[in-house]
Amino acid sequence: VRIAVLVKQVPKVESLELQPNLRLNRQGSELEMNAYCRRAVSQGVELARAMGGHCTVYTLGPESAEEVLREAIAWGADAGVLITDAQFAGSDTLATARALAAAVNLDAPWDIVLVGRNSVDADTGQVGPEVAELLGLPFAGGVRQLTVGAEGVLVSCELDDGWRTATVALPAVLSVAERLIAPCKAPAEARRQVSGAAIRRLGPSDLGPGPWGAAGSPTRVGAVRVFEVVRRRRRMSGSVVEQVDEAAALLEEWGATGLNGAAACRDERPADSRSGLVPRSDLASDDEGALSVVVVAEPERSRVTRELLGRAAELASSIGGAVICAGSELEDHSLLDSWGADRLLELSGTAVEEDVANALAEWVAETSPWAVLFPGTLWGREISSRIAARLGLGLTGDAVELDIAEGRLVCWKPAFGGRLLAAITTVSDVQLATVRPGLFAFRDPRRPSTRNVPISTVCGASRNRITIVGEGVDGGMWELLAARSVVSVGQGVLPDEYGLLDPLLKVLGAELAATRRVTDQAWLPRARQVGITGHSVAPGLYVSVGASGTFNHMIGAHGAGTIVAINRDPTAPVFDWADIGIVADWREAVPMLADALTGKSPQPRISSVI
Ligand SMILES: Cc1cc2nc3c(=O)[nH]c(=O)nc-3n(C[C@H](O)[C@H](O)[C@H](O)COP(=O)(O)OP(=O)(O)OC[C@H]3O[C@@H](n4cnc5c(N)ncnc54)[C@H](O)[C@@H]3O)c2cc1C
What we know:
Layout: E1 2-7, E2 9-11, E3 31-33, H1 35-51, E4 54-60, H2 66-75, E5 79-83, H3 93-106, E6 112-116, H4 127-135, E7 139-149, E8 152-158, E9 162-168, E10 172-176, H5 188-192, E11 199-202, H6 204-207, E12 219-226, E13 234-235, H7 240-254, E14 292-296, H8 302-319, E15 322-327, H9 333-339, E16 343-348, H10 353-367, E17 371-375, H11 378-391, E18 394-399, E19 401-405, E20 408-415, E21 420-426, E22 431-435, E23 455-459, E24 466-473, H12 477-482, E25 485-489, H13 502-508, E26 511-514, H14 516-520, E27 541-545, H15 551-554, E28 562-567, E29 580-583, H16 586-598
Flavin-adenine dinucleotide binds next to helix 14, helix 15 and helix 16.
């Protein structure tokens, strides 16, 4: 078995240093192998050993990226390939994928190409599916279990809100999830001992005519904003009752609980732009693509489709265009109409992501829509990446806001765990973006649907390289993303104690979230995990209970309006991230807080288990 592993060197997010121009200071920032890539290397080495094969690790980056190859080889990989040259500087995901695919192709054939699910700095998840498209291979994303057999590989994948089991024909590109295997980690001494001869260097002349780097990148990074939230860091004082009393009074004073309808709302645009009553565009033109904003609808994710259609309708009205909703299993047409679709595009004969991408890419190439918006889920990321790679289009991943400037789409994209927001534009005619779910409030239906929405069909075909064996939804993710209040538990709250949280959940109308320690132990589903490798949430109120509050967790909550931390350890880092800190056993403080917020005076409770 021949295995290629693609890895990325990233700055340690917590040690991130920015220059005055807000570009990353590579010298000042500590660099390491991306967490997901560590799993890819581990899995590649293990498979090569178990099946009698060979594992080669590739990376694109500056000279310093040699370090991640040394680490992979020290861990057991057979060889490393460093793609490096000044010409590669400024590569976006597509230029990166092209260089990696060209390098991997030099050494083809491969049975399996492994990549990390995404990088923790840029978090697009695009390079894997783009490489798959460029190599003409099937792709499975978020693999957390795999078994190689005669028919191909049986994979169990982590979806954003659930799981999927599928067989994938080999050769294939697989992106790996955290829980697949223990990560590759080699100490500095072992890395130093790796022979330089095991690492081959490739430059632009080895890979072909290009263009490479910034010149071959259809996206541009514009303004960058630092997303800094200054927390009040108020530590409550006195007994637990006194602390809870003070906290409840502050929450009321700040209007943070939403109990009086005043909780911070994530949709902060002026009310008139939020009305949702966008005038319907004139659809007289037969030219389907001209000035259209296309929303690609993921099957069984109507919530996301509805969000995207609402936002697309606003964009379309600004450019005098129309909204087209495309999908393989479109829901009730009149619903789509009322959510903002002016036309529908049925992609028939398509089953899995690569088939949908195939059919849609042809249509996009023919019609040149103004923009195509995809949900920022694994499904949307694969389809958009494949289309971007096939047609050479600019794709912005994981946009959290969409604007228009000079007739072009501007996507605001978070980076480095959300510490930065960068304005990304594309230079290609058709502009592609995946949009993070849960950030746009539902608009009111534009109007009740009273007509037959025009529909056209594109006939696709299945390549039959991927067979879905089973699929399921864990539940909770969409509710969590849309929640106005969140109560988030760490492993200081044991699963059989979750019932004690009910009164607080109820009074706040809150959703339950968790740290990775909690989801790793399967106390709550992964769909509920907040953090750098979980979800980012931005509720009005976030109550952290029995969690230490490390950077990797709290960065996922730093968009919250107000953060309350309850921890019995006064030195826990969570207090640095919080507006209100209560030092107490949560079993005492949480029921009291629920009482105080309901208007009952908090009663001291003696906790039986401390
Ligand atoms: C690459 C990488 C990615 C990661 N991604 C994520 C991520 O996405 N999300 C995430 O959450 N983590 C992530 N982590 C893990 C993260 O760094 C922490 O290890 C984790 O968040 C800690 O979980 P915890 O707070 O539940 O557990 P702990 O750190 O063990 O904290 C438990 C806390 O509970 C308190 N406590 C215990 N009992 C009580 C009580 N009765 N009353 C009050 N307080 C009590 C303790 O004082 C302690 O502070 C990642 C780590 C790495 C290396």
